[in-house]
Amino acid sequence: MSPLVTAGHRLQLNEIPYGPPPSVQEALSAALASANRYPEFLPRRLPRLIAERLGCPPDRIVVGAGATGVIMHIVQEFGTGGAEVVMATPTFDGFPILTSMAGGRPITVPLNDSGCQDLPALAAAVTGRTRLLVACSPHNPTGTLVPAEEFENLLKEVPDTVTVVLDEAYVDFVSGADRIDVFALLDRHPNLLVLRTFSKAYGLAALRVGYALGAPRLITRIARWQLPFGMTALAEVAVRACYEAESEIEARVATLAAHRDRLTTGLRALGLSVPDSYANFSYLTLPGAEADRVATALAGADIHVKSYPTGIRITVGDRAATDAVLATVRSTVQ
């Protein structure tokens, strides 16, 4: 598993540091011979492929240009005309940005004192103008999990007229025992949508492949916003090849988890506060001025990270990237 060759260390976008497995690269290379042909007018084969893998009917799957593309379709359907979209702050930047682009109003709720999403506060922020509520598990940027029982309690509190989005972009880094049983929840709560992506663990960020799971009536409403010819034929080829390379993908996830734990442990050894992360990044919790100082030092070392008012999100890279981060932070805080 050779890391991609880049200038410095790109640790700001939660990309994995490895290119697609060799078998996936071979499948993509072969598919380029048909690059003169248009993909499907609207995607049908890709949702069927994903549904077969997940063991659900294809009418419960809608695909898009990464999870971001699917989010755009969701807010186009539910978040226009000044509709309120309730979300944590900080959260994945796509939610407030795309909500505003669609003409909706982001309603932001601070994290709780533990640095986790405050689910009761999210539910309490719902009003008669709320059309969407968003939660992330693992949470971006802190990497923390939403406990399954607490999430279902949220679903019970939120009116059926509000569509609840569970963003699981990083679920592939979560062990089975810690995952939410989303299919059971989907059966009980038809206002639930679950977002996933192939940009993270599968390493297909450049191909832009994401999807949502949900009740057929919601999926149909979202799918009507799909752009004709909008999903490339390479996306289907890459997803199929990744499914066939499952053991390689799992090995990469395990390697990244080990690097993440080493990064987290190393930062904590410096006396810094880092929550347990279940994703491919660690969140260095620091007050604003201190976070700015550390981020400036990292940038000076050609290490690119993502800063927030409450801290710094550091993507897990290879061993060299972890060494560079720890050395730079150590020289800054000690």
Task: Supply the key terms.
334 residues, alpha/beta, Aspartate Aminotransferase, domain 1, Aspartate Aminotransferase, domain 2, 2 domains, seven-stranded mixed beta sheet, three-stranded antiparallel beta sheet, 41% helix, globular
Characterize the structure shown.
This protein is about 40% helix and about 15% strand. The chain is built from 12 helices and 12 strands. A 7-stranded mixed β-sheet has the order 2-8-7-6-5-3-4, sandwiched between helices. The longest helix is centred in the last third of the chain and has 24 residues, at about 245-270. The chain folds into 2 domains: about 10-20 and about 245-334, Alpha-Beta Complex (Aspartate Aminotransferase, domain 1); about 20-245, 3-Layer(aba) Sandwich (Aspartate Aminotransferase, domain 2), CATH 3.40.640.10. Helix 2 (about 45-55) packs parallel to helix 9 (about 235-245) and helix 10 packs parallel to helix 12. The model is unreliable at about 1-5 (pLDDT under 50). With about 325 residues, the protein is an alpha/beta fold.
